């Protein structure tokens, strides 16, 4: 059976590995300040280091003498010589969310206690490995999903609140610190965290040497951070907070609910649903989403796509007549949300709170987006910044708006000048808040339609290769899709409205989506069509892209064949599947062309009795049910698996491999990136040279990617 290299042997001369965890205290809040600012603050100190070597049965604990050795008759912990010797000799150090522990070690332990510095190359992150194995990013939830022997102490959060937060102020306010009675419990909690982390590490697929090199490159990007315009961010934060307070007051007045706010999503969704339900079943269904898990109730929604679709329908006379008393109120409610539904408050506040000398650090979590290997964003959440310009024809208009805000212009003047509610204007100014340092500039690059290229390349059939030829020839793929949908002979004859249909079809239907997927994507692009017409579009797109439909079924057949024949690889296009019966209680593995694995833990394919969720009174019937355990931010849950998920994961995972390569190759300059773009900070006189280097790096095809027509803007 083909397995990845063992983490313990990343260096041939080093076999020891230490699993460690720190518990800390500070006068500032970690969640507000972020890891980098927190660990550099003068009040931040250490309470506990807990660690265990390799698979040794007993671990060790060390606390500073002030926190343990001078109170209640206890003795100071002995100096941790073996731990420090291990680090001093270049030994490996594993922690959960290792970015935090690495900085705490270097900023507090090295500076304050004289411990040897911990280099980035020594550090491996157990959280990154767990998330690459489709487990939750929280240690206690990952341990629950794997049913480990060692679990996190459920009282840990209470102890952290008492000791990491509450104890610190007492220590600063008193002349002689006294160790609390529950400090001993807290020390045991830290040690059991280490045991739990080690269990998760040992039960998951090890990351390869290449993956750890990509992790270290990502951490260098985190350490470099990105420059921010603090003067503007401070002023923009004031505008954003004032706008939010105004919107909350308007929402309370419209709804009669004093507890409703722009950020209280369940309350907003419930109000909208209650206003629609007595009058219009079709509109009510727009405000409902399928449950995430079987057996859960229907989810209510008031997201942007839902709001825009309902507003569009309410503008039609036949709809408005159904709401003689409440139609205007619903419209005012939705418009108020639109005016205040901006992340500007949170993002500008995060920029202000987390910047260190004009730079924000630690924006990325390696493997944080789950099993596909994509990055997630934390802190400012740069992955969901709005890209819309203040004026797409005049980039300098953003600078004009920023200057007016810095000068304290009245809100009505800003609205008159730029034509947006203040919240929408601020949302368009978050990206321009990121700036280059003195003598430098930002260089931006973006892969053009990378997922639309990767999917047919993965299918690897004559018809899918013909699709790739369109990209190679520089053709407008959206016009070609529209020509097939509308039965036009020549894509040149496709008008702008038809092209929009082709674009939505290309974006929505490649991963098994049908009418619902098209309608949802269409709402994002302001495209609302009758259900009958949408179904015809789906059928036409699938007929014109039969290679894609065929690929879905080949993926599914390969996955099920692998499950039925453990230990044997089954190919589908350029990916292949294997079922590993002992890894994480039975794991389906998808190997991408680059060699990296996507995993589906606790995979099950069963023929079982199920109830009809659409008709609870119908008798149960037998059907094949395919599920696996997926990690979420809040924990793990068993979810359905179908060919659409397989196609999406393989495509996004392969696209993520190109971003990971670019981050590794350009790690000395990258300051920002998302799934399909990178931003570098470079010297002004390097611009022409770096432009070519970035293009070469992002379009480089390793041997495994032969024939994929990448293009970069």
Architecture overview:
- The structure is a single chain.
- The protein is of the alpha+beta class and 713 residues long.
- The chain is 48% helix and 15% strand.
- The protein has 28 helices and 22 strands.
- The strands form 7 sheets. Strands 3-2-1-4-5 form a 5-stranded mixed sheet, with helices on both faces.
- A hairpin with a 6-residue loop joins β2 and β3.
Briefly say what this structure is.
Helix content is 48%, strand content 15%.
Question: Percent of residues in beta strands?
Answer: 5-15%
Major sheet: arrangement of strands: 3-2-1-4-5
Which stretches are low in confidence, meaning pLDDT under 50 for 5 or more residues running?
A: 1-14
Q: What's the pLDDT, averaged over the residues?
A: 88
Give the biggest sheet.
5 strands, mixed
Structural classification? alpha+beta
Straight-line N-to-C gap = 41 Å
Q: Please count the beta strands (DSSP E, at least 2 residues each).
A: 22
Percent in helix: 40-55%
Envelope shape: globular
Number of helices: 28
- Gyration radius, to the nearest Å? 27 Å
Key traits:
five-stranded mixed beta sheet; 713 residues; disordered N terminus; single chain; four-stranded antiparallel beta sheet; 28 helices; alpha+beta; globular
Task: Please write out the topology.
Layout: E1 17-25, H1 30-40, E2 45-53, E3 60-62, H2 65-68, H3 81-88, E4 92-95, H4 98-113, E5 123-125, H5 126-132, H6 139-146, H7 156-173, H8 183-203, H9 209-224, E6 226-228, H10 230-255, H11 265-276, H12 281-286, E7 288-289, E8 299-300, H13 304-314, H14 317-320, H15 327-340, H16 344-354, E9 359-360, E10 364-365, E11 376-377, H17 396-406, H18 411-418, H19 422-428, E12 434-435, E13 440-446, H20 450-459, H21 462-472, H22 477-485, H23 496-509, H24 515-524, H25 531-544, H26 546-564, E14 570-572, E15 575-580, E16 587-591, E17 597-600, E18 604-610, E19 621-632, E20 635-640, H27 643-665, E21 670-673, E22 677-683, H28 687-699
Parallel strand pairs: 1-4, 4-5
Antiparallel strand pairs: 1-2, 2-3, 6-9, 6-12, 7-8, 10-11, 13-22, 14-15, 15-16, 16-17, 18-19, 19-20, 21-22
Helix pairs in contact: 1-4, 6-8, 7-8, 9-27, 10-15, 10-16, 10-17, 13-15, 13-24, 20-21, 20-27, 22-23, 22-25, 23-24, 23-25, 25-26, 26-27
């Amino acid at each position: 059976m083909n397995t990845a290299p063992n983490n313990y042997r990343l260096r041939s001369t080093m076999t020891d590995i230490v699993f460690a965890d720190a518990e800390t205290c500070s006068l500032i809040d970690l969640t507000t300040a972020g890891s980098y600012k927190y660990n550099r603050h003068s009040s931040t100190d250490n309470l506990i280091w807990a660690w265990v070597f390799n698979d040794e049965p007993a671990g060790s604990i060390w606390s500073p003498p002030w926190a343990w050795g001078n109170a209640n008759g206890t003795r100071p912990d002995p100096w941790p010589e073996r731990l420090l010797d291990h680090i001093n000799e270049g030994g490996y150090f594993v922690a959960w969310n290792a970015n935090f522990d690495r900085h705490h070690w270097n900023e507090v332990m090295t500076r304050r206690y004289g411990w040897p510095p911990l280099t980035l190359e020594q550090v491996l992150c157990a959280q990154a490995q767990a998330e690459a194995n489709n487990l939750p990013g929280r240690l206690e939830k990952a341990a629950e999903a794997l049913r480990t022997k060692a679990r996190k102490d459920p009282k840990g959060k209470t102890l952290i609140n008492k000791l990491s937060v509450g104890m610190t102020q007492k220590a600063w306010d008193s002349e002689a610190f006294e160790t609390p009675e529950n400090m001993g419990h807290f020390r045991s909690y830290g040690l059991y965290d280490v045991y739990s982390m080690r269990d998760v590490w040992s039960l998951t697929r090890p990351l390869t040497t290449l993956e750890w090199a990509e992790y270290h490159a990502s951490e260098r990007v985190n350490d470099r951070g990105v420059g921010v315009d603090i003067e503007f961010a401070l002023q923009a934060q004031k505008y954003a907070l004032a706008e939010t307070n105004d919107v909350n007051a308007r929402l309370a007045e419209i709804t009669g609910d004093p507890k409703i706010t722009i950020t209280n999503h369940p309350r907003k969704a419930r109000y909208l649903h209650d206003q629609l339900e007595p009058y219009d079943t079709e509109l009510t269904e727009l405000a409902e989403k399928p449950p995430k898990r079987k057996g859960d109730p229907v989810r209510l929604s008031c997201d942007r796509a839902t709001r825009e679709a309902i507003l569009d329908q309410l503008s039609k006379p036949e709809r408005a007549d159904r709401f003689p008393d409440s139609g205007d109120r619903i419209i005012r409610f939705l418009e108020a949300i639109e005016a205040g539904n901006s992340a500007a408050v949170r993002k500008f506040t995060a920029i202000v709170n987390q910047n260190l000398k004009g730079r924000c650090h630690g924006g990325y979590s390696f493997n944080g987006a789950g099993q596909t290997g994509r990055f997630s964003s934390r802190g400012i959440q740069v992955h969901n910044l709005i890209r819309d310009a203040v004026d797409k024809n005049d980039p300098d208009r953003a600078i004009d708006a920023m200057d007016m805000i810095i000068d304290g212009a009245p809100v009505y003047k800003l609205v008159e000048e730029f034509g947006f509610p203040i919240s929408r204007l601020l949302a368009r100014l978050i990206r321009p808040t990121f700036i280059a340092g003195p003598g430098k500039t930002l260089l931006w690059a973006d892969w053009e339609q990378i997922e639309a290229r990767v999917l047919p390349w993965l299918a690897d059939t004559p018809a899918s290769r013909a699709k790739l030829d369109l990209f190679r020839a520089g053709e407008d793929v959206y016009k070609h899709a529209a020509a097939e949908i509308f039965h036009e002979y020549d894509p040149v004859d496709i008008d702008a409205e038809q092209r929009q249909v082709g674009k939505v079809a290309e974006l929505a239907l490649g991963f098994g989506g049908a009418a619902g997927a098209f309608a949802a994507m269409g709402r994002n692009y302001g495209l609302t069509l009758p259900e009958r017409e949408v179904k015809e579009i789906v059928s036409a797109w699938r007929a014109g892209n039969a290679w894609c439909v065929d690929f879905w079924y080949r993926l599914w057949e390969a996955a099920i064949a692998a499950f039925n024949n453990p230990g044997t690889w089954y190919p589908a296009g350029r990916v292949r599947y294997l079922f590993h019966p002992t890894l994480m209680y039975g794991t389906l593995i998808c190997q991408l062309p680059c060699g990296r694995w996507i995993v589906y833990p606790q995979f099950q394919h069963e023929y079982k009795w199920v109830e009809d969720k659409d008709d609870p009174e119908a008798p149960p019937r037998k059907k094949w049910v395919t599920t696996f355990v997926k990690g979420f931010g809040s924990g793990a849950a068993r979810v359905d698996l179908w060919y659409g998920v397989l196609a999406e994961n393989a495509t996004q995972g392969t696209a993520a491999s190109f971003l990971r390569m670019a981050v590794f190759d350009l790690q000395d300059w990258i300051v920002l990136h998302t799934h399909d773009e990178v931003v570098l900070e470079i010297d002004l006189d390097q611009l022409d040279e770096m432009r070519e280097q970035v293009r070469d790096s992002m379009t480089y095809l390793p041997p495994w990617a032969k024939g994929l027509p990448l293009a970069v803007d």
